[in-house]
Amino acid sequence: MMFEPVQPYISPQHRVKFAIWPWECEGAARLRRAVFCDEQGIFDGDDRDAIDDRAVTIVALSDQCGWDDEVVGTVRIHTGDAPGEWWGSRLAVCKAYRRQAGLGTSLIRLAVSSAHAQGATRFLANVQSRNVLLFQRLHWISLGETSFHGHPHHHMQADLSFYPPIADGAAGFVTRTAEIA
């Protein structure tokens, strides 16, 4: 008898929150290295920079029987140079979870909404060109094309009126995703 290989379990439920535990921060760093260094080759060895010292790391955690299991998505947010200016960067989703509609969207939602709650009057990001359509669907506008680390990006701004403030980013929220056909 021939058996089919067992596919890994992909949780349809995720908790999106600020990373407050060491394992969450370490998982976010591992995921960023896997995506931006190993997979995309944007950085050599590690993508950490000076912004990490002041940024808030946000994670999406898979659910295993009601327990937070592993970091399957991440993004970071931080203040900019101008008063009220906030930035998001290093949005990454684990390869096995990219077919989950809504996971990246949930990370973006908490990023912008929690910055909004902390006084953001403008929220910006340099978005890889291949992801511009997703951001436009989420009420972002392109302010122009640019090159970032030698790769094509769009300088984009979120419409804050579509992102009500979320004051407790450490608690975050639970979201259900669906597999994209």
TrEMBL record:
The keyword Zinc-finger does not apply. Keywords: Transferase. It comes from the Bacteria. CDD domains: NAT_SF. InterPro entries: Acyl_CoA_acyltransferase (IPR016181), GNAT_dom (IPR000182), MSMEG_0567_GNAT (IPR024035). Coiled coil: none annotated. PROSITE patterns: GNAT (PS51186). SUPFAM superfamilies: Acyl-CoA N-acyltransferases (Nat). It holds the Pfam family Acetyltransf_1. Residues 29-167 form the N-acetyltransferase domain. GO terms for molecular function: acyltransferase activity, transferring groups other than amino-acyl groups. The keyword Cytoplasm does not apply. NCBIfam families: MSMEG_0567_GNAT (TIGR04045). This is GNAT family N-acetyltransferase.
